[in-house]
Amino acid sequence: MACRIGGAGGAGGVAGTSGSGGQGGSGGNGGWLSGNGGDGGTGGAGAVNNGGNGGAGGNAGLLSGNGGDGGTGGYGNNNGGSGGAGGNAGWLAGDGGNGGTGGVGGTTNGGSGGDGGSGAWFSGNGGAGGAGGQGIANGGDGGAGGNAGHFFGSGGAGGGGGIGLSGNGGAGGNGGNAGLIGDGGNGGNGGGGYISGGNGGNGGNASMIGNGGNGGNGGTGHWTGTGGAGGSGGKLVGQPGFAGARARATTNSVDQ
């Protein structure tokens, strides 16, 4: 039976003069037996209010295929839209889709990054979490990395937190956990902030054979973000991940 790939989701509509951008369409699912999920559409821009959220990536077919990537959140004059979640892989083999990036917030907060999709149950890697969007006030949080399949595969990396130009940086996303054989994903770095830097995400855990993911570093700011914890190593073979570093304090604006 031939595989079928899901179609990409459509982009969300741009808002009118006093509204928010439309949400991006979800990606289509892969065929029943095999095939990749389609990517989610980008959220529409909000000229006055909020950006639309990115669409979710489609799920893969039952046996094999990769999940689609989540769509990017739209720009919002107020808040940016969130990135869409990555689609999940099938049962036998395939990787989860990556989460979409959060949209930029023109006057307030950046959108959160989407979470990565899960790897296939038997063998597959988790998708990476999307980065948080930049905000004039606060940066968006990074998305979590997807978990790997049960037997084989590594966890996805967490997305980095967005920069907060006049407020706080976004937190980094946690790394995904590994399968029985594989490495945990690294945690995302916290975003820099004018007031406080975001905290780094925790590294994902290994299971039996593999290394734990490293924790993300804290973001810079007048008050600094803490580093994330390293993930645990495999019970049979493997090393724990390193903890992320605490950032140094700054006396001026955020480091770009």
Short description:
This is PE-PGRS family protein. The protein is largely without helices or strands. It has no helix or strand.
Q: What summary fits the major beta sheet? A: none
Strand content: under 5%
- Structural class of the secondary structure composition? little secondary structure
How many E-type strands? Answer: 0
**Termini, distance in Å?**
51 Å
Number of helices: 0
Region (Disordered): 1-43, 99-121, 205-256
Biased composition (Gly residues): 205-236
Protein name: PE-PGRS family protein
Organism: Mycobacterium kansasii
Report on the architecture of this protein.
By secondary structure, the chain is mostly loops. The chain has a domain at 133-246. The chain has no helices and no strands. 79% of the residues are buried.
Keywords, please?
single chain; 256 residues; little secondary structure; PE-PGRS family protein
